[in-house]
Amino acid sequence: MILFYISIYATRGILPAEFPILYFLIAMAWLLPLASPIAVYYDRQYVATHSDWKPSALYYLMVFPAVIVGDIIAIAYLYNRHKFIGKP
User: Fold this and answer.
1) Residue 25's pLDDT band (boundaries 50, 70, 90)?
2) Alpha-carbon distance 61 to 41, whole Å?
3) Residue 56: helix, strand or coil by DSSP?
4) Is residue 61 a contact partner of residue 40, using CB atoms and an 8 Å limit?
5) Distance between CA 55 and CA 49 in Å, rounded?
6) What is the reported pTM?
7) CA separation for the pair 23, 40 (Å, rounded)
8) Secondary structure class of 65 (helix, strand, coil)
9) Do 9 and 15 touch, CB atoms closer than 8 A?
């Protein structure tokens, strides 16, 4: 999420754009959230096969772009995952 805010500031001209690493960070800020649903899918598969808990499809909402909603759902998912699997 921090990369997302960096990209917003960079596009508004607040941060200097002379650094090539800045363009990389901006690209990652926009590309990583696209991979999040895939990661959630495979993690749900892993948890379902290695424990008695079958995570609900509602956990896909943790990749929701709203800061508070996605973070609360992700914390709840990690808490339940740790309770059943024992690993973060």
Assistant:
1) confident
2) 12
3) coil
4) no
5) 11
6) 0.62
7) 27
8) coil
9) yes
Alpha helices per DSSP H over the chain: 2-11, 20-50, 67-84
Pull the structure tokens for residue 39.
């990661």
- The pLDDT of residue 42 is 92
Under the phi-then-psi rule, with left for phi > 0, alpha for psi from -120 to 50, and beta for the rest, what region is 44? Answer: alpha
Question: Would you say 81 and 47 are in contact if contact means Cβ atoms under 8 Å apart?
Answer: yes
58 and 67 in contact (C-beta within 8 Å)?
no
| Most confident among 27-31, 32-36, 46-50 (mean pLDDT) | 46-50
Nearest to 87 by CA among 47, 36, 53: 47
Residue listed under structure tokens 């800045």: 22
Q: What angle do CA 6, 7, 8 make, to 5 degrees?
A: 90
Sequence letter at residue 31: L
Higher pLDDT, 9 or 51: 51
